[in-house]
Predict the structure.
Amino acid sequence: MAAYIIADIEILDPEEYRNYAQHTQATLDKYGGKFIVRGGQSETIEGDWQPKRVVVIEFPSMEQAKVWYNSPEYSAIAPIRQRSTHSRIILVQGV
């Protein structure tokens, strides 16, 4: 069953974040992940959530998403994102 990593990312250092973003796709390819949403305009239609940059990545399963997130490839670039952003990230199973 598909699973989704959903992130709300506030970019603090655009140049460093750009470096991270340039390397992300290569880590996803190996683990079956694909971007569904990568930035783009968002609009709050209910509640008070004001996301900065929304990213949604689809994986074949929750297990595969966890394998990617903990992989050596992603672990090598994750600190770049962590330094250059304030991120809120969840993993959710689809239906």
